[in-house]
Design brief:
There is one protein chain. This protein has one helix at about 10-15; strands at about 25-30, 35-40, 45-50, 50. The chain has a domain at about 25-55. A two-stranded antiparallel ribbon has the order 1-2. Strands 3-4 form a two-stranded antiparallel ribbon. Helix content is about 10%, strand content about 15%.
Length: about 60
């Protein structure tokens, strides 16, 4: 089993880990609606690249059932 010959200092270990960062999700804006969404995903309204790909049923406001 490989065992380090000397202890790695805190500074050296932290320098190595400086590039470990959480990436922000890449967001995109729909061409037609202008809505923000994740890239390569449809918008909540069912649009993808300016075209409606999934018809979304919307509840009418003011109606009680």
């Amino acid at each position: 089993m490989a065992v380090p010959k000397k202890k790695v200092s805190r500074a050296r270990g932290r320098k190595r880990r400086t590039h470990w960062k959480a990436a922000r999700p890449t967001l995109d804006r729909d061409i037609l609606t202008g809505e923000t969404h994740l890239r390569h995903h449809i918008t909540p309204d069912g649009f993808y690249r300016g075209r409606q790909v999934i018809p979304v049923k919307r509840e009418e406001e003011g109606e009680e059932a």
